[in-house]
Amino acid sequence: MRPESEQDLSEMVRATVAPLRIMGGGTRDMGGPVAGAVLSTAGLSGITLYDPGALTLVVRAGTPLAETQAALASEGQRLAFEPMDMRALLGTQGVPSVGGMVAANASGPRRVQAGACRDSLIGVRFVDGTGAIIKNGGRVMKNVTGYDLVKLMAGSWGTLGVMTECAFKLLPAPETEATLRSAPLSVPDAVRVMSAALGTPYEVSGAAVDSEGCVCLRIEGFARQVAYRTAQLQAALGGDWQVLEAPESVALWRNIRDVTEFAGLAGDVWRVSVAPSAAPDLVARMSCPVILDWGGGLLWFLTPEGVDLRARLGAFAGHATLVRASHVTRARMAVFPPQPAALEKIAQGLRMKFDPRGVLNPAMMG
């Protein structure tokens, strides 16, 4: 099924008597396997409003993300949250879409400075599991009364509704960027350095540890500002640092964002979110390759196929998501982190409210 309008989508959902597998660009093959007819949002494409002066964009959910980013770049603007492209890591084809990005709350290294996808999302339109068309938010930021459905839809993976349109606040694109890269460090030392860097006034927009154990710190802005802040950050941190200029820096952060170091390698990939101070202990519990992002708040583990990382790690304050694994593994193991009973009750209540028949991506999130 491929609706060409919001009304078409509403009628298709209302008429369905069987589960639907919601698909945007088809690049984020995650979650529990969904058995159902494919409903593609690719026909819901196009930018409906772009006001560069107001730093505001409204775009249909099926619009290719690259098309959207090109339009913003032509005006010297960008989406603040640096959405991850999962094709290399997951071995998928297709074209990332705006709706898929929002459904996954896809957020990259710049989250430490600019927040997540949901923090830039200011409005949504979607069709719920009954076929009703729902709108929440709009073109400007304002106080929210009642349900904040904008934030609720980001990261819902199509289980509460099929998005048809999204509105974003934007940021100006920087003139240039540079990255400081250290020699290999132990994880405790790396987290300490990243925390120190993020605590400086030099506006670090990326703090990660690559697969070689090197700390990478990014600074963006006007050329003169970047040169000054880079020098000041080096002086504040001490030690020897390699300086990567714009082309090399851009490539480095694209690889960190997309976890390309693990692309094509055998094994499962897990995404673990924790307080940065907890990262060294969790890494020490596992003897497998790891990449750190968000100053140590995001850990990517490459484990042997079928390994239950949650069981191996034991109790910890955070959550682990199985990002890449076979369908067999994803069918027998919870992909998304189990929730406490109280939160699970709320989640089930929301699904019953927005999809009482259970037709939207059933089993996707367990």
Total helices: the number is 14
The parts where pLDDT drops under 50 for at least 5 residues are 140-146
**Domains, number:** 3
CA radius of gyration is 21 Å
Q: Strand share of the residues?
A: 25-35%
Rounded to the nearest angstrom, the distance between the terminal CA atoms is: 24 Å
Strand neighbour order, sheet with most strands: 3-4-8-6-7
Q: What's the pLDDT, averaged over the residues? A: 93
Helix content: 25-40%
What is the architecture of the largest domain at the second tier of CATH?
2-Layer Sandwich
Most strands sheet: 5 strands, antiparallel
CATH C-level class of the largest domain = Alpha Beta
Categorize the overall geometry. globular
Counting DSSP E segments of at least 2 residues, the number of strands comes to: 17
- CATH fold description of the largest domain: Uridine Diphospho-n-acetylenolpyruvylglucosamine Reductase, domain 3
